[in-house]
C-alpha cells in the first residue's frame, strides 16, 4: 500500500504543465460509445478514474490502446449493454453510461454509481432526464435498467442544476428523434467541452441563452479526435500548494477563462497572478489575508472541488476565515485530519470557521479525492514530516501529485510500504 511522505517548509517555485481534465475526459469517453468508428483523445490524464472507465468500456466491447497520453477507442464492435455494480460502484461518472447505451442500442443495465463520499449524490435528475426522453426505467436488485424503442426529443427543465444530469441528457438526446431543449443546465466548462466533442462527432447542438441547450437528433455519429483541455481543478490545487508555502508557480497550459472565481479569492488573500501568452504566473509570497466569507456555488461560482484545497491554505493564514459548502453535504471530512496537525477549525453544519495557525507534520489519512490533495497541501506548510495514507483516493484525479510538486521543489515522495 502506498504512502505519501512530505517534509514541509520548502517555498515552492517553478513551472509545470498540468494534466488533462478528469471531469472533461470521463463524459467524453462515455460519449465515444455513440459512434461505431474510432475516437482519439489526445492529452488524456493517466488517472485511476480513466482506468476505471476504460475497464467498463472494455466490458461493453470497446477496444482501447494508448500512445503516450493519447487514448484510442475503437467502438466498432460494441455489443454489451450491461455493467455490473462492482465496476459502476467505483466512480460517480459511470451513471451517464445509461444515456450513451440508450443512444447506441436502446437499452442499458448498470449498477449504481459510486464516487467520493462527499454527499448523498442521488441520481433523480439523471432518471428524470431519461424518462422525459421516453426511456422506461426500472430499479431492482441493485441495478438500474433503462429501455426505449427510440428516444424522442423533449423539452427538459431541470429543477436543479447538475453537471452529471446535463451530461446524461446530452448523451441521450444527440441520437433521439426530433429536437430536445434542455433548460437550467449546468454551466461548467466540462459541459461546453462535451458539446464540442459531440459536435465534432456530428451531433447538432446549439447553445441558446445561458444554461439552455438545444439538440437536434441525428441518425448517426462518427469517430473524431480532440485534445483534452488542462484540468482547472488540478491547476487550482497546485496554486494552493504554492500558496500554502508562500511560493510561486507558473502553469504552462492553465485553462484561461475557467478559473476566475478561484483567482478572485487567490488575489483577495494577497496572491498575485497574471496570464501571459497562455501561461498562468502566480505568486503566493504576499498571501496574508484571511477570507471573511466564501461559499461554493455552481459554475461560474467558486468550485466545490477547490473548497478543501483552499481550506488547507486558510489554516495557515492569520485571522478568521469562513467557508460555506453549498453543493455537497459532507465535504468537510478532512477537518478532523487537519486538526491533528494543529489547525483551529470549527465545523458548524454546512459552514466551517478557520483560525490560522502553525501546523505540525503527522500521520494523516485521505478518505476522498480533493480532501486527500488538501492534506498534501497542508503538509507542505507544516513543520516536520507528514505521512499521508489513502493514496488511491488521490490517484483517482491526480496523475502523479508527487512528481508535479517535486517539479516545484517540494520535498515529497511516494513510498510503497509493502516493498519495505
Ligand atoms: C460533477 O459531479 C463532478 N464529477 C464533481 O467533481 C463536481 O464536484 C460536481 O460535478 C460539481 O461541480 C465529475 O464530473 C465526474 P452534480 P456530479 O450532479 O455530476 C445534486 C471531483 O472531485 N444532485 O452537479 O455528481 C448533488 O447531490 C468531483 O472531481 C441531485 O440532487 O455533480 C449535488 O448536491 C467530486 N440529483 C448537486 O446536485 C441528481 O440526480 C451537484 O451535483 C444529481 C445531482
Automatic annotation (TrEMBL):
Cellular localization per UniProt: Cytoplasm
Binding site for UDP-N-acetyl-alpha-D-glucosamine: 92, 121-125, 305, 327
CDD domains, A to Z: UdpNAET
UniProt key word Cell inner membrane: no
Gene3D superfamilies, sorted: Enolpyruvate transferase domain
Entry GO MF terms: UDP-N-acetylglucosamine 1-carboxyvinyltransferase activity
Entry EC no(s): 2.5.1.7
Pathway(s) the chain acts in: Cell wall biogenesis; peptidoglycan biosynthesis
Residues annotated for phosphoenolpyruvate binding in this entry: 22-23
Active-site residues annotated for this sequence: 116
SUPFAM superfamilies assigned to the protein according to its UniProt record, in alphabetical order: EPT/RTPC-like
Keyword Cytoplasm attributed: yes
Similarity field: Belongs to the EPSP synthase family. MurA subfamily.
Functional description taken from the UniProt entry: Cell wall formation. Adds enolpyruvyl to UDP-N-acetylglucosamine.
Name of the protein this chain belongs to: UDP-N-acetylglucosamine 1-carboxyvinyltransferase
Source species: Blautia obeum
Lineage: Bacteria, Bacillati, Bacillota, Clostridia, Lachnospirales
Amino acid at each position: 500500500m502506498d504512502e505519501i511522505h512530505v517534509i514541509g517548509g520548502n517555498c515552492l517555485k517553478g513551472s509545470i504543465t498540468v494534466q488533462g481534465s478528469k471531469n472533461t475526459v470521463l463524459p467524453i469517453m462515455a460519449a465515444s460509445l455513440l459512434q461505431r468508428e474510432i475516437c482519439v483523445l489526445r492529452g488524456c490524464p493517466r488517472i485511476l478514474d480513466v482506468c476505471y472507465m476504460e475497464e467498463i468500456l472494455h466490458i461493453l466491447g470497446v477496444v482501447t490502446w494508448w500512445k503516450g497520453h493519447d487514448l484510442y477507442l475503437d467502438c466498432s464492435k460494441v455489443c454489451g449493454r450491461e455493467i455490473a455494480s462492482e465496476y459502476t460502484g467505483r466512480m460517480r461518472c459511470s451513471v451517464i453510461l445509461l444515456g450513451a447505451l440508450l443512444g447506441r442500442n436502446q437499452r442499458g443495465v448498470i449498477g449504481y454509481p459510486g464516487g467520493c463520499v462527499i454527499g448523498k449524490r442521488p441520481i433523480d435528475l439523471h432518471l428524470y432526464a431519461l424518462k422525459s426522453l421516453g426511456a422506461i426505467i426500472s430499479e431492482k436488485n441493485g441495478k438500474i435498467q433503462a429501455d426505449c424503442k427510440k428516444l424522442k426529443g423533449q423539452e427538459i427543465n431541470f429543477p436543479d442544476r447538475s453537471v452529471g444530469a446535463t451530461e446524461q441528457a446530452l448523451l441521450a438526446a444527440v441520437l433521439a428523434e426530433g429536437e430536445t431543449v434542455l433548460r437550467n443546465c449546468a454551466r461548467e466548462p466540462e459541459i461546453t467541452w462535451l458539446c464540442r466533442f459531440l459536435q465534432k462527432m456530428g451531433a447538432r447542438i446549439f447553445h441558446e441563452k445561458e444554461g439552455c441547450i438545444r439538440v437536434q437528433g441525428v441518425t448517426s455519429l462518427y469517430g473524431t479526435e480532440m485534445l483534452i483541455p488542462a484540468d482547472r481543478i488540478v491547476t487550482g490545487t497546485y496554486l494552493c500548494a504554492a500558496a500554502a508555502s508562500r511560493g510561486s508557480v507558473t502553469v504552462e497550459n492553465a485553462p484561461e477563462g475557467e478559473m476566475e472565481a478561484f483567482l478572485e479569492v487567490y488575489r483577495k488573500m494577497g496572491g498575485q497572478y497574471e496570464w501571459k501568452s497562455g501561461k498562468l504566473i502566480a505568486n503566493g509570497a504576499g498571501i496574508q489575508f484571511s477570507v471573511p466569507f466564501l461559499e461554493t456555488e455552481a459554475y461560474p461560482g467558486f468550485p466545490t472541488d477547490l473548497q478543501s484545497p483552499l481550506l488547507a491554505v486558510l489554516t495557515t493564514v492569520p485571522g478568521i476565515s469562513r467557508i460555506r459548502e453549498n453543493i455537497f453535504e459532507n465535504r468537510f471530512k478532512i477537518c478532523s485530519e487537519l486538526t491533528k496537525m494543529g489547525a483551529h477549525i470549527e465545523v458548524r453544519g454546512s459552514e466551517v470557521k478557520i483560525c490560522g495557525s502553525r501546523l505540525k507534520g503527522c500521520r494523516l489519512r485521505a478518505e476522498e479525492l480533493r480532501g486527500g490533495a488538501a492534506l498534501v497541501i497542508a503538509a507542505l506548510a507544516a513543520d516536520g514530516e507528514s505521512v499521508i495514507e489513502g493514496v488511491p483516493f488521490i490517484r483517482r484525479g491526480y496523475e502523479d501529485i508527487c512528481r508535479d510538486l517535486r517539479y516545484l521543489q517540494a520535498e515529497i515522495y511516494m513510498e510503497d510500504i509493502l516493498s519495505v
